[in-house]
Design brief:
Keywords: Membrane, Transmembrane, Transmembrane helix. The protein has six helices and four strands, in the order αααααββββα. It has 245 residues and is an alpha+beta fold. The chain has a four-stranded antiparallel sheet with strand order 1-2-3-4, with helices on one face. Strand 1 and strand 2 form a beta hairpin.
C-alpha cells in the first residue's frame, strides 16, 4: 500500500501541468451558464407579460403564436423605435420625388376635386394618444378602442368606396395583415392595358398596392405617399411607432 507521501508526490505534479484550454476560454465556459441563468431568471416575468400582451391583441402580420412573437422580437433589433426619427423616411430620395411633390402641391392648390383643397383637411394631432404596445407587428391600440358598431361602419365605408370605383379599387385580404383583415387595394392594370386598373406607384412597393385596412379594435393602417406622410407628421397625425426602415 503506497504511503501518504507517495500519493501526494504523484498528485502534486498534476497541478503544475500546462492547461490544455486557454484561461480566457476556461473562464468563459465556467461563467457563461450561471450568467445566462441569472439573466433568464430576471427577464422571464417581463417576457411572459409581453407574450401575453402579444396574444391578447390578436393576429395580424406574423403568426399568432410563439414563433411569431420570437420573429417580431428579432425584427426589433433592426426596427426604428420611432418612424419620425432622423432621417425621416419621407426625406429619402428627395430629388427623385421632386416632380411628385410639385404635382401634389398643384392638386392641393385647387386643381383637384376638393379632397386636398382645404388647408385644414388634416386635423392637428393634439390630445390624448391611445396606448400601443411596442411590437413591430402586429400594431394595435389597447386603449381608446372603437365599439364593434363603429368598426363595422368603417369597414362598410371602405367596401362602398371600392364598389363605387371598381376600375381603380378592389377589396381583398390584406397582404400586410394576412387573411384576418380585408383591405382596399389599387386595382392593377392588366398586361393588355384593357379593363381599367393602375400601375402601382414605386412608394407602395412593400404594400404592393394596399391602401388601407381596418383593425378589429378600430385603428387603421394607411399607405401614404412621401408628401402625404410628411404632412401627417407635420400636423401631428402620426404618433410615431416602431417600424422597419
Amino acid at each position: 500500500m503506497p504511503s501518504l507521501l507517495t500519493t501526494l508526490h504523484n498528485l502534486i505534479p498534476a497541478f503544475h501541468r500546462p492547461l490544455s484550454v486557454p484561461v480566457p476560454v476556461l473562464l468563459f465556459t465556467v461563467t457563461l451558464p450561471p450568467l445566462l441563468l441569472f439573466t433568464f431568471t430576471f427577464t422571464l416575468p417581463s417576457l411572459l407579460t409581453s407574450y401575453r400582451t402579444y396574444l391578447a391583441i390578436g393576429p395580424g402580420g406574423v403568426p399568432h403564436n410563439l414563433f411569431g412573437f420570437l420573429a417580431q422580437s428579432c425584427l426589433r433589433l433592426i426596427a426604428r423605435s420611432d418612424g419620425r426619427a432622423s432621417p425621416p423616411p419621407y426625406r429619402r430620395g428627395r430629388q427623385q420625388q421632386q416632380q411628385q411633390v410639385e404635382d401634389v402641391q398643384l392638386v392641393k392648390g385647387g386643381r383637384g376635386r376638393g379632397d386636398g383643397g382645404n388647408e385644414n383637411s388634416l386635423p392637428t394631432g393634439a390630445g390624448d394618444r391611445p396606448v400601443v404596445p411596442d411590437f413591430v407587428a402586429p400594431q394595435r391600440q389597447t386603449s381608446m378602442q372603437a365599439a364593434p358598431a363603429m368598426v363595422a361602419r368603417m369597414q362598410a365605408f371602405l367596401s362602398e368606396l371600392a364598389a363605387g370605383n371598381p376600375s381603380v379599387l378592389e377589396i381583398r385580404p390584406s397582404g400586410l395583415e394576412g387573411k384576418w383583415h380585408n383591405a382596399v387595394f389599387l386595382r392593377e392594370a392588366a398586361g393588355t392595358g384593357e379593363g381599367g386598373g393602375l400601375n402601382v406607384p414605386e412608394f407602395m412597393g412593400m404594400a404592393k398596392g394596399e391602401i388601407v385596412h381596418v383593425h378589429s379594435e378600430g385603428s387603421s393602417h394607411v399607405t401614404l405617399s412621401l408628401v402625404d406622410g410628411e404632412e401627417a407628421v407635420r400636423v401631428g397625425c402620426y404618433p410615431g411607432r416602431r417600424d422597419i426602415p
